[in-house]
Amino acid sequence: MTGDLGGGAAGATGGAGAPSVVLAGGGTGGHIEPMLALADALARRPGPRVTCLGTARGLETRLVPARGYDLRLIPPVPLPRRPTPDLLRVPGRVLRAVAETRALLRELDADVVVGFGGYVALPAYLAARRERVPVVVHEQNALPGLANRIGARLAARVAVTTPGTPLRGGVHVGMPLRTAISRLDRAAARAEARAAFGLDADRPTLLVFGGSQGAASLNRAATGTAGALTAAGVQVLHARGPKNSDVTVPRRPAGAAPYVVVDYLDRMDLAYAAADLALCRAGAVTVAELSAVGLPAAFVPLPIGNGEQRRNALPVVAAGGGLLVDDADLSPSWIEENVVPLVTDPAALAGYAAHAAAAGVPDADERLADLVLEVARAR
Q1: Which long-range contacts (CB under 8 A, 24 or more apart) does 328-334 make?
Q2: Domain 184-359 class, CATH top level
Q3: Which CATH code is given to the segment(s) 20-178+362-378?
Q4: What pTM was estimated for this model as a whole?
């Protein structure tokens, strides 16, 4: 759902003697976004040479070159979440990927490898160990995946997004974010943002989004509450997902508050600036972005997987920066009973927003860059 804003590769090539930093974070946006935010932070400093590792099958083939960074490809090593016959193929894939990654690390004269988890990071960690290149691990989720659990055992430093993440030696630095988000002044951008989406300037505003593809349960519950929301004077900006063209808003009385439905949000910074409250999933990047900009949310964790989304949201909710509802319990009546009273209460919203901001780490990209360069220079 996040757009490709901010940053740039100025200074990414460095000069003679500059630290060579290799970033491994391909596959999904949850790995690529923090990798690129760190790359941007390094590029704003004089010297570091930044190279990204990825595979031909991930989003990095589009996103990394678009931001101006060198991308080198290695064979993918997908890790099955459950015991399957495909597990038997993993050792051979790992050996091949590690061999190719070792050659790249020698070519790049790498001083440090930074991994963000996933099927690109594991061979990078193992290759770095063989080449005696120090490793820094960054874990985005409150519950780490297999690659980072292995990487943390080999790492010089381990950085985590959520306090209490169960990785040995983990230091809380937060989630590296694009400067378009981390430096967003929501109040200053509000008028421009609401005008851009065709929203009224002064109404309380709910933002609904379910990730880049949308979320059926959020779509059903939000549109089912359209009448109650707009009758209460609440306007809605709803990103339904590009494949969900059947999601429409029921007829409402003339003069009712706007209910704007879009397929996709290219400018999440403007969406956050327009909103007073969000109804959304609890992916690691989403939770970190909302906290960094001080936007409270009603989090609806994805009901599948290992429960990591619930864990991602819990620290913000415990701090008083949001609500938490199970996907099975989300309904039009839940929104009417919980969201409508909150979004129409300016004092309560202000309190939630302050607590959300207090839980955020808007300078996580700089914190992680400091840690990475410290390790590189020590080598």
Answers
A1: 328/303, 330/217, 330/218, 330/221, 330/300, 331/221, 331/224, 332/221, 332/224, 332/225, 332/228, 334/221
A2: alpha beta
A3: 3.40.50.2000
A4: 0.89
